[in-house]
Task: structure prediction
Amino acid sequence: MNDDAEIIQEFLVESHENLDHLDRDLVELERSPGSRELLSSVFRTIHTIKGTSGFLAFHRLESLTHVGENLLSQLRDGKMTMDVEVTHVLLSMVDTVRALLEGVERNGLDTDPTVDVDVVVAALQRVLDGEAAPAPVAELTPEPEPVVELTPEPEPEVVEDRLPLVAAEPAAAPAPAPAVAEEPADGTEKRGVVDSSVRVDIELLDSLVQLVGELVLTRNQILQRAEASDDIELVRAAQRLNLVASELQEDVMRTRMQPMAQVWSKMPRIVRDLAHQLGREVELEMEGHDTELDRSLLEALKGPLAHLVRNALDHGLEPRDVRVAAGKSPAGRLHLRAYHESGQVVVEIDDDGAGIDPVKIGEAAVSRGVITREAFARMEPREVLDLIFRAGFSTAAAVTNVSGRGVGMDVVRTNIERIGGSVDILSTVGAGTTCRVRIPLTLAIIPALVVAEGGERYAIPQANLVELVRLEGQDLRDSVETLAGAPVLRLRGRLLPLVSLGETLTGQRPETDALTVVVVQADDIRFGLCVAEVHDTQEIVVKPIGRQLKALPVYAGATIMGDGQVALILDVGGIARVRALTPTEFTDTSTVSADVGSQALLVLEVANGRRAALPLTAVSRLEEFDSSRIERSGSSEVVQYRDGILRLLRLAPAIGLQDTPGEREQISVVVHEENGRRVGIVIDRVLDVVDEAIVTTDVGRRAGVLGSAVVQDRVTDLVDLDAVVRPLELIS
Amino acid sequence: MTATSTTRAVMAPGQQCCTFWVDGLFLGVPVEQVQEVLRYQRMTAVPRAPQAVHGLINLRGQIVTALDLRCRLGLPPRPEGELPANVIVRSRGEVVSLLVDDIGDVIDIAGAELQPTPANLPGSIQDVVRGVMPLDGSILLVVDADRAVDVSTAPETPAPALSPAIATNTTPGGTP
Result:
């Protein structure tokens, strides 16, 4: 009995793989109906399933695939030709086979009463009878003549498939033993199973990853010991161990990676079905089949991607007549692309359809009460596009079967953000839309700041970090106050609620004469988390914690530090909930800060080669204007900008420097926006964007400058944006 | 305990018990549920966790919760300076460490009869022990690992009291 269960398991795994190939082949066939290779390959797959299901006594499955096989053999032998109708019944057969297999997976039986086999069998039979000479049931040979020119499956990405033509069944043999026995005369390989690879249980892989992690830690300990040792042999062995362990770790991590082809292979079928349903013509192009990412992420990506593709077909690509009228090619183009970029996987869904009209989106949002008309008037087109990610938002003129129920993009975004990714949309009205999804390569490793409290270390995910502030002595007394027992920090003119990590964890607030505040942000809540010590930032491997601790909201998981000890990962949102912090809108207009900390800075050049820096958060965009566009309004210089007037402010004089002499053809402007007001800060040029820990000194402090810091090995003025912009507000 | 008959069925296949001592009590878990036994491991404390959770240990890269059986059984805390040992058990797909005073042998219990836990034992012990086996010279308390790792029913002291919640609506000037 156990043997049987195992055989069925193998059968299921193999059949599912084959069915995916089938989908693709059938769609391909519709395009090149004459391809004998494709037909033979399809035939063999169905034949294999039929053979094995007969052997395992899955009679419904057998009878279904039997008729399907008849039809396929007619097609293969040229007695019938592929057309839409034939493709349709074949695809519905594939779907029914899949449904039956699911039943088998559930309870080991193919008798699921909800799956109607007879209808499909009848449809197949009708096609058979209608067009071809009626095929007498008895004559059905499950025996395709050995086809010599078989190049199975000319999909470009699976090169391995071509190789084993002659080598009949080498590596894949151990798996579906009975299936092999059932099709002796085929003479060719069973396709789909990649012969140069071995199927491995996911649990085994996960356990390998864990063991390698442990090995690496042990290696670290041995290396430490070896360094202190005089034993030359030991030192050499330790170095070898070091190399081997590193390579092993890399390779094992790679075993969890899977190619994008897994998702792409399903797309032709999805697109074909949708195109038929919606009456669109679609040219599907796909790129980046071998882009790899962690399998758990791949799995999580499938749903959102299918949704985005659906959207592109339904809302993006126009019907044929509309396209022709607009002077476009009758068939819409849908381009799917996956590639690696700076440690992330980027997936683009690009169509050449109607694009998204910000005006329509805005109107819809206003009429639905998502935003006010005033808010809409103030929004940039890009912000307007972002509205489609709001819950309950849909602009489909008619609610179609495919999309337009208003539960769409917000779910896509939520699902992608859940795996640490992001999604954004670029669109040009009339020319098309590009959806760009970015996700990390692997979910398991994240950067985090390690802090200490009560003798234990804790990790705070980098994604939650805003900045670090350290306060001592007089500063501490000046900037921290207590309101009704609640400590707050005056930070650049705003009050930041402070939460003591020690108190949150143990109920006792530690007494200190200095305060290290980690400013964190979760959802809409920003607060200062007071910790005893700050260690460094490191990449940590996120591990789950046991059932006993799941109910604790303050932890997101745990990780293992370099010394082998466990450290808990803090859940910033959970801490906010535990401390009953309520969200407030905290639009930060932060200028440069604090004693320690890392923040993104825009480094620029002013006053003939002097360096200055602005916090990147204060920069809403960078622009270049022709000097001829500068006009005067009262005592100010202004330019016309986005249907409005942008007041210009020359940075050099504002921070006590001489402006660069001479007129330029173009001016560089940093657009800064605050409280709905824009100002253009005129600089010489942008040098760089840096993200590094800076130490502010009082050297150079003056009006408009907070002080100086060494940025990229050069002394740089840190601009006090509030002070620079304030005079403008007084005169306006 | 009413579970005597079903218990016997569960115990049947291996009929061996991994034994240990906790505060003078001789306890055992069927070997099928025990993954391994380890000497004392360094632990990371988990503030706010149920009291029986003593910490987290790194078991070859896997993070394992360590539960103090003394606390779970409602027994007095381990004397200062005595280090517990780990009995790593598998329960409902998870691996959990039970902290015990001392490790005993793996003993053969084939033929011994599992009897109901004497009614006068404290409730906190009744809750975790599925039955007792009188052996020569000692009485073995057979621990139900699934129940032992379930801390939702464990004796509990109140969680640390926090100072009143901090209001954040004190930001002057309101929202821009």
About this structure: The first helix of chain B runs from residue 4 to 11.
